[in-house]
Automatic annotation (TrEMBL):
Xref: InterPro entries: PPR_rpt, TPR-like_helical_dom_sf
Lineage: Eukaryota, Viridiplantae, Streptophyta, Embryophyta, Tracheophyta
Pfam families according to UniProt: PPR (PF01535), PPR_1 (PF12854), PPR_2 (PF13041)
Alphabetical list of NCBIfam families matching this protein: PPR (TIGR00756)
PPR repeats: 231-261, 267-301, 302-336, 337-371, 372-406, 407-441, 442-476, 477-511, 512-546, 547-581, 582-616, 617-651, 652-686
Domain of life, source organism: Eukaryota
Name used for this protein in its record: (wild Malaysian banana) hypothetical protein
GO terms assigned for molecular function: mRNA binding
UniProt keywords, alphabetically: Repeat
Length: 727
């Protein structure tokens, strides 16, 4: 499915570049000394009880063993007044093979208002480890660490006599990490090395995952230097750390070096983490190459891996390719979950391909996957964006009926859809419903409402709404200001639009290409080309790259103002700077040269357009046909008509009228009649002059029925004479 490029193996990276020599400042011993001078664990034996204490302990232990099913409070109540902390340790000596009773005794002792001695907690933890109760041991070790400063020393001191199972130190290390004493964990690792104990890689991985990236690297190198053999999960923690910091290149190098330097093979998590990072940062090529590499190594991608690729492809508007990945996912036997379906549904919704959306929803339901709030929101967004508000609202009510709670994004999708349709009452009804539900509209919600008001000409109301939004502590964004500027320009208030752009900059927001293009368009339409041109210079001075729409706005402005030579110079300026115009750029020039009947220049521009690799569109052909008809160049007009029909384009109403009139003038009545009937079949209205021509023709030919039909049609359909000449 994907193109595979062989990865180049870089030089060793973190294992060499980040390895630090252990200095005497960090360790009280050289590394080679550790291997030859391991210190022994201290000898320990509890102090001996007095006769009175020994008898009390025997009575307590006997009672616990004989009355195991009873509550410790009932069993030990008679002994409470004489019980001291020393009795805990002496009792543990008799209960070391019975962790349940050790725990019961300890649990009974705690509420007495006296702290449990560090030694007793350490011994209880050792007993739990030896008895195969690691979870209980870890809890006891955590309690000891929290309540006693020198608890680690107590664990080490009692180890030889009570435990001699090294896994207790994995649990002690994990307990220190649990309470987030990370420096102490690293110190413990170094200290245990002096006793010949190496904490396991799995225990150390928990520490790695909590460290900042720099500390993670130094700890990795240091522990490896001290004898720890890291594993695949350890490298995965490093990969995740680099990916989280945006350093995907370094993460990739770790993956490449794992087998050779650490002796750990990358697994599905290694690849999936890196693929997901590449996808999050938009690096599709690297992600797909890694995906292929996974397959080469016999590793089966999981749903998370596939979803990462599908998400990026949908984000890049490559929804068809995303579905190919989805198909491969199912082919490989990886069942897509509702997250994968929702991602793909959202992609098709944003591209407006609703039939594909409905198909995926049916597939999802057939797979017994239940759409959640995110799925419904994606569907509602897609329907709202396509203007299908009836279906969007129906789906919204279905969602609520199923007990799913719409969120701010769901409501905003519906509100935006109603605003685009100009149904502001419905939009504000939903806004109020949001508030009643306890949801807080965000800046996107208010931007949609503001944009809708502006399109209705209610710019002052929109402005008031935005002031209210700012008062609520929401920061307006570029889109919000742009919607207001667009509304002001549409009602012709360019001065206020410019002032709003100044306010936008004062708020710390930079006007973008859309902001400038909107105001330039307003200046161009009002014939103020100097101001429009000044804005272009300002854009370039600020390093804002104009879009092709920006240049087309200027071009149309120059042409509308009759400044055709300025338009030509703008086109030359664009080509000199390798800014590729499109058909709309050329169409503005072609239209106005055609209107002046300077067809020689029109032909020259058209040839330049084709030489630049710009293909004419439907509008181009209609402009050329009308222009040549006006200039009575019917041969050229018919040539372009034939070419455009061959490319699947259609004549506009104006082009039909111009061609028919021109053909009649040239006495080519059969062709003219054919076009007239074609025009009528498409329900396009001919102008009055064309109707008069064919009424006269049919009357002359004594075709009275057709003559009367055309008379009635002309009366019914013809526009006022003032509109007929607007081609």
């Amino acid at each position: 499915m994907f193109r595979h490029a062989a990865a180049t193996r870089p030089k060793s990276y973190f294992f060499l570049a980040h390895r630090r020599q252990l200095s005497s400042q960090r360790h009280a011993f050289p590394v080679d000394f550790i291997a030859t001078a391991i210190r022994p664990f201290p000898d320990y034996s509890p102090k001996k009880p007095a006769i009175y204490d020994a008898e009390l302990v025997r009575s307590i232990v006997t009672a616990l063993k004989q009355r195991r099913s009873e509550s410790p409070d009932v069993i030990l109540g008679p002994f409470a007044a004489r019980f001291r902390s020393d009795h805990l340790v002496w009792a543990f000596l008799h209960l070391r093979s019975d962790p349940v009773l050790v725990g019961a005794l300890l649990h009974w002792y705690r509420p007495r208002g006296r702290p449990v001695p560090a030694e007793a907690l350490a011994i209880a933890a050792h007993v739990a480890v030896v008895s195969g109760e690691p979870a209980s041991a870890r809890r006891l070790l955590r309690d000891g660490l929290v309540s006693h400063r020198n608890f680690v020393d107590r664990v080490i001191y009692t180890y030889k006599y009570w435990c001699s199972v090294p896994s207790v130190f994995d649990l002690l290390f994990g307990a220190i990490v649990d309470i987030n004493r990370l420096d102490e964990a690293r110190t413990l690792f170094r200290h245990l090395v002096t006793y010949g104990i190496i904490v396991s890689a799995d225990a150390c991985n928990a520490l790695l995952s909590r460290l900042t990236l720099d500390h993670m690297l130094s700890t990795f190198s240091e522990f490896q230097e001290l004898g720890l053999r890291w594993n695949t999960k350890s490298c995965n923690v490093l990969i995740h750390g680099f990916c989280g910091a945006g350093k995907t290149g370094e993460a990739h190098r770790i993956l490449l070096e794992m087998e050779g330097t650490v002796g750990a093979s990358p697994d599905i998590i290694s690849y999936s983490t890196l693929i997901d990072a590449y996808c999050r940062y938009g690096e599709l090529l690297q992600a797909t190459e890694l995906f292929e590499e996974m397959g080469d190594k016999g590793l089966m991608p999981n749903a998370f891996t596939f979803n990462s690729l599908i998400t990026l492809l949908c984000k890049n508007e490559k929804v068809v390719e995303a579905e190919r990945v989805f198909t491969e996912m199912m082919f490989r036997g990886v069942a897509p979950d509702h997250v994968v379906y929702t991602t793909l549904i959202n992609g098709y919704c944003k591209s407006g391909k609703l039939p594909a959306v409905y198909r995926l929803v049916e597939e999802m339901k057939n797979s017994q996957l239940v759409p959640d709030t995110v799925t419904y929101t994606a569907l509602i967004y897609g329907l709202s964006r396509s203007g299908n508000m009836v279906e969007a609202n129906k789906l919204f009510r279905e969602m609520v009926g199923k007990g799913l709670s719409p969120d701010e994004v769901t409501y905003t999708a519906l509100i935006d859809g109603y605003c685009k349709e100009g149904k502001m009452n419905d939009a504000f009804y939903l806004h109020n419903e949001m508030l009643q539900m306890g949801l807080v509209p965000n800046v996107v919600t208010y931007t949609a409402l503001s944009d809708g008001l502006c399109k209705q000409g209610e710019v002052e109301t929109a402005n008031e709404l935005l002031r209210e939004t700012s008062g609520k502590g929401l920061e307006l964004n570029v889109f919000t200001y742009n919607s207001l500027i667009n509304g002001l320009c549409k009602i012709g208030n360019i001065e206020q639009a410019v002032k709003t752009m100044v306010d936008m900059e004062a708020a710390g927001l930079c006007p973008d290409v859309y902001t400038y293009t909107t105001i330039m368009d307003a200046y161009s339409k009002s014939g103020e080309m100097d101001q429009a041109h000044d804005l272009l210079r300002e854009m370039l001075d600020k390093g804002i790259q104009p879009s092709i729409v920006t240049f087309n706005v200027l071009m149309n402005g120059f042409c509308t103002a009759g400044m055709l030579e300025d338009g030509r110079r703008l086109l030359e300026w664009m080509l000199e700077r390798s800014i590729m115009p499109n058909s709309a750029t050329y169409n503005s020039l072609l239209r106005h040269y055609c209107m002046e009947k300077t067809m020689k220049t029109t032909t020259k521009i058209y040839k330049e357009m084709r030489a630049s690799g710009i293909m004419p569109d439907e509008n181009t052909y209609n402009i050329l046909i009308r222009g040549h008809c006006r200039a009575r160049n019917m041969k050229e007009a018919c040539y372009f008509h034939s070419e455009m029909i061959g490319k699947g384009f259609s004549l506009s109403r104006g082009s039909y009228n111009a061609l028919i009139k021109g053909l009649v003038r040239k006495k080519r009545l059969t062709e003219a009649t054919q076009l007239f009937e074609e025009m009528r079949a498409k329900n396009l209205v001919a102008n009055r002059e064309i109707y008069n021509i064919f009424i006269d023709i049919n009357y002359t030919e004594q075709n009275i029925e057709m003559t009367l039909e055309l008379c009635d049609e002309a009366v019914e359909k013809c526009l006022p004479e003032s509109d007929l000449n607007k081609i």
